[in-house]
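Co-fold these.
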Amino acid sequence: MSENSRVGEVIEASTTEFVAQCYELYQSPPLGSLVKTIPTPSGPVELYGIVYQVTTTGLDPGRRPIARGKDEIDEEAIYQASPQLEKLLRTEFGALVVGHKRFNSTSSASAETSQHEQENKLFYYLPPKPTRIHSFVYQCSSDEIREFGQSFDFLSMLLSTHLPILAEELTAASLRQMSSVHPDPHTYLVAAGKELAILLASDYNRLKAILGRIRE
Amino acid sequence: MALDLTKVATQVGGILPRLKTRREKHKERLQSALDFLRNSTEDFARLKAKINASKTTWPVAGLFEGLEQSHPALPLPTEFTIIASDGSQIDVDRHQSFQCYLINIGSVALHYGPHPNAVLESRPRLYAEDKDLMITAPGRNTQEEPIKGALLDIKRSVEECHRLVELAEELPPGSSILALLDGSLTLWGLTAYPNFVADILLRKGLLTYLDQLRELNKDRQLALASHISLPGSKDVVNAVRVAVCPDEPVNCACCSSLPEQACDIVTGLLDRDLFANLLAPGERSELFFSQSKVVKEHYGEHPIYFFYLRLNDEIARVELPRWVAQDDGLLNLTHTLILNQCNRGHGYPVALSEAHEQAVVTAKDRGNFWQHIESLLVNEHLPTVNSSKSFSKRTRWI
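Predicted complex below.
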């Protein structure tokens, strides 16, 4: 997947999470990966989310997919024989909002030139407003992942969520994703483990569950 | 108040014994008809002449080569495209303040082969101008027919065919294409209207689209057919009815008052009953042509032909214009591709099924549609006068 590639569009949004529909069937970002929505003139905030759930279902909730492959040699043959399937199924992913970057636009002295200087700063807490429906969702580049992963402040948000997926599972998946773009993944994971040990000082079982999932 | 099913249940129970008796009689008649077809020594040319000379009160299938022959499907081409359209509508509601109707045409283009692809689409169109709401006789403004009910059904059928033309034109030259419609190619309802209605909807509508589809065959192989699931037609049974009639020429008026008639041996049978016994799965029947009044009088260069197709669980009727029926390549393509579509779609062409899904307008959609119109009128401070009946139905009180 190319860097900073657009992977979908927001179809449900709340303060704490958003759901995006993928443009291509099954082409969702992986579990635990970092995605973002980009700022627009009406919403100068870049939201960061961690993918916690990927689902593929029928486009129409009233129509359930049926088994088709009894006489086909492989799965690919089913899609070849029923080209409409690609248009009747959709892949969606849910992302937990874990931070945002504000773009503070300040006009220069000359209004005529309309030049803007942009400052940006990363915050590891919820934005004042949720993203908008139809916002484009991009997979973050390696640089952006490294920048976001410099601080482990997002871990406390991951650990305290109530999602259809275990918080330990999601935390471990996101750390695996972030360490993969780090120059020294092992060092990164050790640092993350130390942070988790502080956050989960009173819950050894949870800590053990996560460490067991990020061990190389 | 909901329907009181307990009261209905006793009535349904009362008709069951009659259904059982009728079923026995039906089996006997079917056997007689099949025996006749298999053992008849009557000269086929003579039967054709007898049918042509007959004066019956029911439509009789026109024959070409026989009644009971069957034809297997040819192998599937390696690459082909199925285009299909289907429509639904929101009818004019005289209880609403805004007179309009909506036709939603759903269409699909399914491409099979090394590079499979699918395009699914729906195109809703609102009709609210005076010229949309009435069909007016040319030069005679006093003669007009409102487009609603059965006439709107006919207009929708014409629009479905129009959409097929657009889809077919978009496909590259050299393609092998089957264009599919649901239901009959014969616009039966037209007989209930004055001739100028048929002139506008058929001669300037459906038939021009059939012309255009035929023209597209210059640089591509394009067949058009309509598919009728579980057909209730009796054209071929009626041909048997003529064959067993002892009178010559056959004239129903002569013996309609008699208590028993020779042709009673096929009463109650449908064409699909015959072909369920004459065809093996995948086979098609012989070709027949429609001798219905509306086709004879109005269809000009596009008389309607048909054959029956045996699927795994039912007999389907496939109707096609003459230019498809008389071209062996197009006829075989139609047979093979409809059969393949039905096999992919559990007995019903998958392209028609998906076109229907694109077109369907639910009761909720209808409610939303009228509500949206009403709110727009209110926003513009336009009067929204609904009938008291409509108000009464929406606000139910005790």
